[in-house]
């Protein structure tokens, strides 16, 4: 949001244009089209959304989980709406446009829409962050920030403050998401008057999701509007939200393209890779890659069973385990850890059962209670093809990949 361009104004909608005209025009915005991916691209460029966001080289292989692609052009092709920037990168990597349905072109674009907002909170974040690992003196740090992002730090405010830093980071990271927030949120209302109760119950524009009779005189009803009746919100802008994620994907892709098959795992803003002869420039400024492990630290043992499910040990014998959806208490980490994840990967065990203690609320009485629940951890990986072998490394390839 600080460096990259965003569309400004209202788009011009272009229908039934030719591929030749599109390639000759410098259109900027969004394009709905059908593309044919290349067959041997290790890191695909364009995502498609089914139940998950998947980067595939063949749509039918992804849908049917077919490991040897024999599909025709129509079955392989991807149809969707992407930014013109992403489609341009895809064309550079070998994608071919088969048909264009619609282009939404913006005459104007700007990289200053959010600069002042970002500057305000980035200044707080930088003043409260640790700088001693990267710079010799505080003056060196101040000068580096000035040269990199044009922000003047106040020397008297430069002091590590994790709480204030976290607050500034939330303001920086969450701002863009409001532009893409769904306008049709579920609403819960406690009703005591009969006329209001019947008004909600008989409203054809509403979809009732839940009803709880709290007492003889009170009813709690949850509802949301039927999609066809949802109006436009004045504080959202899907174009801004879409370009934010698109710009982020392109920045990530540039790193993936640079590292190639040395990448072992990546997420929205992070990459784990095999350090060999590839130099990755790191820093602590906005938009720069940061070494999260610290100076002189590297990973010696690694396992991942899928997205947001990983564990690694470094050369200082520290083990980190991160698994989305599982609270890794001391008791649970004895069962779900690097060793058990490896056993699941090697098919020595199928799953790990865990017990969780959680606080729940009775929907009728609203009283809180401590309850116990169980959760099962198992390997569920289908975003790419896992190419199992007898070695320690399990290679993965995108669906539809053919080694020409």
Question: Can you offer a commentary on this structure?
Answer:
It is a single chain. The protein has about 400 residues and is an alpha+beta fold. It has 4 domains: about 5-110; about 115-175, no CATH class; about 185-230, no CATH class; about 265-395, no CATH class. The chain is about 25% helix and about 30% strand. The chain is built from 11 helices and 20 strands. The strands form 8 sheets. Strands 2-7-3-6 form a 4-stranded antiparallel beta sheet. Strand 4 (about 50) and strand 5 (about 55) form a beta hairpin. Helix 5 (about 115-125) runs antiparallel to helix 7 (about 160-175). The radius of gyration is 25 Å and the shape is globular. It starts with 5 loop residues before the first strand and ends in a 7-residue tail after the last strand.
Care to give the gist of this entry?
With 404 residues, this protein is α+β, with helices and mostly antiparallel strands. Helix content is 26%, strand content 28%. It is built from eleven helices and 20 strands.
List keywords for this structure.
DNA/RNA_pol_sf; four-stranded antiparallel beta sheet; 404 residues; nucleotidyltransferase; DNA-binding; alpha+beta; 11 helices; globular
Topology:
Elements: E1 6-8, E2 12-15, H1 19-24, E3 29-36, E4 48-49, E5 53-54, H2 59-64, H3 73-76, E6 78-83, H4 84-92, E7 96-105, E8 108-110, H5 115-127, H6 138-149, H7 162-174, E9 187-191, H8 194-201, E10 206-213, E11 219-225, H9 238-259, E12 263-267, E13 270-273, E14 299-306, E15 309-314, E16 319-323, H10 330-333, H11 338-345, E17 351-361, E18 368-378, E19 385-387, E20 395-397
Antiparallel strand pairs: 1-8, 2-7, 3-6, 3-7, 4-5, 9-11, 10-11, 12-13, 14-15, 15-16, 17-18, 19-20
Helix pairs in contact: 5-7
């Amino acid at each position: 949001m600080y460096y990259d361009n965003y569309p400004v104004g209202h788009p011009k909608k272009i229908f039934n244009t030719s591929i030749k005209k599109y390639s000759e025009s410098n259109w900027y915005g969004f394009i709905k089209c059908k593309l044919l991916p290349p067959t041997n691209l290790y890191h695909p460029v364009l995502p498609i959304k089914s139940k998950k966001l998947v980067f595939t080289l063949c749509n039918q292989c992804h849908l049917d989980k077919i490991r040897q692609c024999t599909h025709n052009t129509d079955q392989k092709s991807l149809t969707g709406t992407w930014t013109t920037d992403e489609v341009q990168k895809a064309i550079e990597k070998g994608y071919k446009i088969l048909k264009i349905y619609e282009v939404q072109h913006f005459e104007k674009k700007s990289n200053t829409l959010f600069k002042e907002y970002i500057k305000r909170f980035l200044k707080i974040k930088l003043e409260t962050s640790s700088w001693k690992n990267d710079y010799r003196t505080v003056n060196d740090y101040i000068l580096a920030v000035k040269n990199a992002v044009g922000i003047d730090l106040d020397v008297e405010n430069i002091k590590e403050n994790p709480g204030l830093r976290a607050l500034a980071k939330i303001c920086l990271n969450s701002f863009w998401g409001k532009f893409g927030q769904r306008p049709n949120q579920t609403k819960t209302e406690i009703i005591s008057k009969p006329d209001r109760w019947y008004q909600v119950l008989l409203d054809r524009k509403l979809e009732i999701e839940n009803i709880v009779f709290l007492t003889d005189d009170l009813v709690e009803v949850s509802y949301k509007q039927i999609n066809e009746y949802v109006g436009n919100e004045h504080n959202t802008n899907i174009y801004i939200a879409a370009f934010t994620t698109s710009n982020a994907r392109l920045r990530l892709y540039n790193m993936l393209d640079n590292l190639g098959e040395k990448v072992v795992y990546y997420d929205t803003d992070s990459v784990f890779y095999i350090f060999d002869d590839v130099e990755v420039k790191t820093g602590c400024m906005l938009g720069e890659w940061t070494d999260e492990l610290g100076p002189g630290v590297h990973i010696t043992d690694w396992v991942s069973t899928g997205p947001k499910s990983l564990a690694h040990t470094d050369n200082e014998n520290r083990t980190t385990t991160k698994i989305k959806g599982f609270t890794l208490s001391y008791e649970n980490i004895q069962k779900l850890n690097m060793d058990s994840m490896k056993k699941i990967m090697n098919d020595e065990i199928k799953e790990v059962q865990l017990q969780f203690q959680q606080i729940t609320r009775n929907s009728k009485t609203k009283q809180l209670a401590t309850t116990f629940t169980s959760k099962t951890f198992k390997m569920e990986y289908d975003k790419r093809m896992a190419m199992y072998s007898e070695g320690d490394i399990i290679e993965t390839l995108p669906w539809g990949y053919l080694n020409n």
